């Protein structure tokens, strides 16, 4: 089991460029999440997908779009990157039942110049 | 709004001593709580969880205490080791499965 994998590990963009962050999980989880982590702040939810075929906005969705491609994969797209989107992005997945934790990927470090 | 926070941003502890990391929460309807460990450059990892109807749970070298009266959660690490150096943060989870994370405490283990 690889768990949750994310690509790329690190990316530098210029303002206005677009990119897609990829996430995949091999644990057969229902739910998948995208967070951003900024210094001194807790993880903030960008978008989530409670099950295949559904996506919902989180706390900070502006400037992002997502696609739940299938049960395994959940991608995050920045259409026109801004310096304010410089952050570390984490994907997570979880079973939708009981007292279940979220399992996190290793993160993507994004720098927007 | 509801929030989860930590009292101390940085905790310096000597190797072999016990560490206590604190977390305050405000949502009395939270169903359970989780502690995560995040090492530098890595994603958060589950340490231990506790349901809201419990006040204590023990794991390997870790104990979580829940005080619902004052809405306080703590993580105790026994005999702290250099490998325990990391950021620790708590999360509260409501009955809908919504997670809210605290900002974290940096634990630095000194020899």
Per the principal axes of the C-alpha atoms, what is the gross shape of chain A?
globular
In quaternary terms, these chains amount to heterodimer
| SS strand fraction of chain B | over 45%
Helix proportion of residues of chain A, in percent? under 10%
Bin the strand percentage of chain A.
Answer: over 45%
- N-to-C span of chain B: 41 Å
Question: Could you please describe the fold and organization of this structure?
Answer:
The complex is a heterodimer of chains A (113) and B (111). Chain A contains no helices and eleven strands. Chain A has 113 residues and is mainly beta. In chain A, strands 2, 4, 5, 6, 9, 10 and 11 form a seven-stranded mixed β-sheet that branches. In chain A, a hairpin with a 6-residue loop joins strand 5 and strand 6 (56-57). Chain B contains no helices and eleven strands. In chain B, strands 2, 4, 5, 9, 10 and 11 form a six-stranded mixed β-sheet that branches. Chain B has a five-stranded antiparallel β-sheet with strand order 1-3-8-7-6, with no helix packed on it. In chain B, a hairpin with a 4-residue loop joins strand 7 (62-67) and strand 8. The N and C termini of chain B lie far apart (41 Å). Residues 1-8 of chain B have low confidence and may be disordered. Classes of the chains: A mainly beta (113), B mainly beta (111). Chains A and B meet through strand 9 and strand 10 of A and strand 5 and strand 10 of B.
């Amino acid at each position: 089991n690889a768990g949750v994998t994310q690509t790329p590990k690190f990316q530098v963009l210029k303002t206005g460029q677009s990119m897609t962050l990829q996430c995949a999980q091999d644990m057969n989880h229902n739910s998948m999440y995208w967070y951003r982590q900024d210094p001194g702040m807790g993880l903030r939810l960008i978008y989530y997908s409670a099950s295949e075929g559904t996506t919902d906005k989180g706390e900070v969705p502006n400037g992002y779009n997502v696609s739940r491609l299938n049960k395994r994969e959940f991608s995050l797209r920045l259409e026109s990157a801004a310096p304010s989107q410089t952050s570390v992005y984490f994907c997570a997945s979880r079973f939708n039942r009981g007292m279940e934790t979220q399992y996190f990927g290793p993160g993507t470090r994004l720098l927007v110049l | 709004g509801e929030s989860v926070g930590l009292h101390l941003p940085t905790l310096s502890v000597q190797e072999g001593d016990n560490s206590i990391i604190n977390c305050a929460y405000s949502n009395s309807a939270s169903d359970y709580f989780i502690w995560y460990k995040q090492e530098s450059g890595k994603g958060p990892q589950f340490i231990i969880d506790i349901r809201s109807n419990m006040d204590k749970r023990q794991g390997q070298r870790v104990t979580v205490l829940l005080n619902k009266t004052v809405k306080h959660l703590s993580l105790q690490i026994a005999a702290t080791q250099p490998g325990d150096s990391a950021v620790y943060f708590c999360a509260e989870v409501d009955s809908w499965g919504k997670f809210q994370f605290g900002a974290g405490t940096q634990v630095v283990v000194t020899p």
